[in-house]
């Protein structure tokens, strides 16, 4: 492969208000190659994809197509230049036919011209044949399987004569055999000269089909467009998490003498969980590890009373708890939940710092006739906002204008102010910078040291291994097993992945 | 005490000590809705005062104050539901239903008028509760629910009353509509301002009011913070029904009769002032903001424009056209103002 790169990004920077998402990232794509783009959550992968496809404009740096500098003002221009993308979330119109979806981009350009459906379907058939997908082009997309819609999206990208095709987590919702079909198609596209970018968390797949790799870490290149030859899984992991970040800060905390704070026994939920059993002691950090779609957030919301528990029971301090609403969970049982999606579930973005930090304690602070003064709320929350070093021009500042890290601190502070006994923390470090992340980790440990039972939900493996005392692995709405954490990254990550892939059954790994 | 409750300016910090306490929010008074409205009111007052005969007459100022009182109540009635991010198209229908019950209690049952008022308020709140309950239970937008209940409430009322008015209203009650205090001021205007003050206190300084605002701004976040949002939304609708009833009772006092058509067919005559007052006042249709003071100013502007344009001998339909244009203009200006603020905050 000595050909010239078809696409290059050089020193791309992207700065959002308060956050540097990309700090000088480079990438070069060769024709006829499958290029892996790897990185942890928040490393900048999706930002880079958005820069490449014209959604975001880079703050600085340049983008070259066939060696010429280009600027994409929008996604349409990127598409026209031959850069196609298949997003993680589906982007087809369910009620439209396969053929209409494939040609949507061409059709919208000519709103008044009558559509020649015979020709449309004939052309669609051609692209479907190209990827050996045997579906009728006149069928509505809503009738197709997940894997088939995925392939239709690829056909659509090809019909736009994409020379560069980005696939964001294409196998996330596919079965292994469907993934194999996809891979054989990707290999054939590669052989016909298309340059593919493959984004995935599944390193085995990356090792199987990719020939080159770029790894991002904290918005920078951990490696840039290297050949995959001779690389193994460990090499990739090392690039992704960095050598010295392995399980940083973990320390053994013995809590076996403390009483159990919360226990779930054979819990089933309306979201589809079955036989969920685990317990967490006072002062313990119980990790709940699972991939996206494993049912982690739904389980947290069920414990909080937002999703109905249909079977089994939840014990708080040894007593069966009757949680019929989130208000019950918070005010009667001292539960708290730091949401993974702070923009829609965690914070009221259009309200002030004070209103957000105080929302859980309003009821407690209210005087006669529900009277509530700002002074009382300020007195209750200010110590926690100061302890967490929230940076805001004033307590009256609208939360939407703060950085992600400060927003996250506020969504933690509100539960500290409420004095919860059990805190469920869902993906604490999504979209926040490394420094705040380390700070939050320290805070979570201190919180546990002071006796709070913490349930930590994260798909960030290093984060899990550096924080948790014990790790329960959730997959497909079931607890697949538990491991005692010893802080050794390699052993722990292997044990967790084994549980997810059911290879080791339900056996726990000795600490 | 400021009448407007806006969470972004609710919590100015005391003297700066820590990093958290430093930096007071920039004064935004000159780009606030309230300032713009006061400016418009002054300008139009000058225009009408000089261009028409009788705008500043005692009679006109008195009726203007009385109409303003009704429009303030109508506007606040809509505002309490806009706070939740919803709408209440049934404000007029609820108001008329409650007023007719009041008339029935007075004329047929011969109840003392304070009891009749309480019955009417209870019915208004109950009809609001029907709306709120339906919205929470079905998860449908309040637009659809209140569009349906508007017709249902009004239809049932017409059936029960046979579309006949109750004109036998005791003088003690009707007197409120015609008496003057402090010169040319109607007591109805003072009542409207007192209600506005109470509402401002609710949103500004009570748990319930703050829970209403939080629920309106982001329901899921409020729910996950332990607020029983279903209950809160129902309460907002009940409050709306009660306020609509106050507006209708003011009309009963003014007209000396409870008339089925006093808010137009299906109560639709109220819809334009109901939207105009809060929207001019700075309410966000997505919810989470309760500009009580702004809504009062908006209602005052609408009443003044109506009165002035009629005095200029423009047909009533032109007044409607003008108010419709004003609604569009208000939405447009508010959008421009907010994007300007967003730009300033990011810069």
| Oligomeric form | heterodimer
H-E order of chain B: HHHHHHHHHHHHH
> Which fold name corresponds to the CATH topology of chain B?
ABC transporter involved in vitamin B12 uptake, BtuC
Instruction: Write down the overall geometry of chain B.
Output: globular
Query: Can you summarize the main beta sheet of chain B?
Result: none
Structural class of chain A: alpha/beta
- What is the helical fraction of chain A, as a range of percent? 25-40%
Counted by DSSP, the helix tally of chain A is 19
* Rg result of chain B: 21 Å
Query: What portion of the residues of chain B fall into strands of 2 or more residues?
Result: under 5%
Mean of the pLDDT scores of chain B?
Answer: 87
Tally of individual domains of chain A: 3
Largest sheet of chain A: 6 strands, mixed
Across the major sheet of chain A, the strand order is: 6-7-8-3-9-10
Distance between the termini of chain B: 32 Å
Tally of strands of chain A = 20
Task: Describe the SSE topology.
The complex is a heterodimer of chains A (511) and B (347).
Chain A: E1 7-16, E2 19-29, E3 33-39, H1 45-52, E4 60-65, E5 68-70, H2 75-80, E6 83-86, H3 98-102, H4 104-108, H5 117-130, H6 146-159, E7 164-168, H7 176-191, E8 195-199, H8 203-209, E9 212-217, E10 220-227, H9 233-241, E11 260-269, E12 276-281, E13 285-289, H10 296-303, E14 309-316, E15 319-320, H11 326-331, E16 335-338, H12 342-346, H13 353-358, H14 362-365, H15 374-387, H16 404-418, E17 422-426, H17 434-449, E18 453-458, H18 461-467, E19 470-475, E20 478-484, H19 489-500
Parallel strand pairs in A: 3-8, 3-9, 6-7, 7-8, 13-18, 13-19, 16-17, 17-18
Antiparallel strand pairs in A: 1-2, 1-4, 4-5, 9-10, 11-12, 11-14, 14-15, 19-20
Chain B: H1 33-51, H2 58-82, H3 91-107, H4 113-138, H5 142-161, H6 171-178, H7 187-205, H8 207-217, H9 219-224, H10 229-255, H11 271-281, H12 292-311, H13 316-346
Membrane topology (chain A): Peripheral membrane protein
Keywords (chain A): ATP-binding, Cell membrane, Membrane, Nucleotide-binding, Repeat, Sugar transport, Translocase, Transport
Organism (chain A): Acidisoma cellulosilyticum
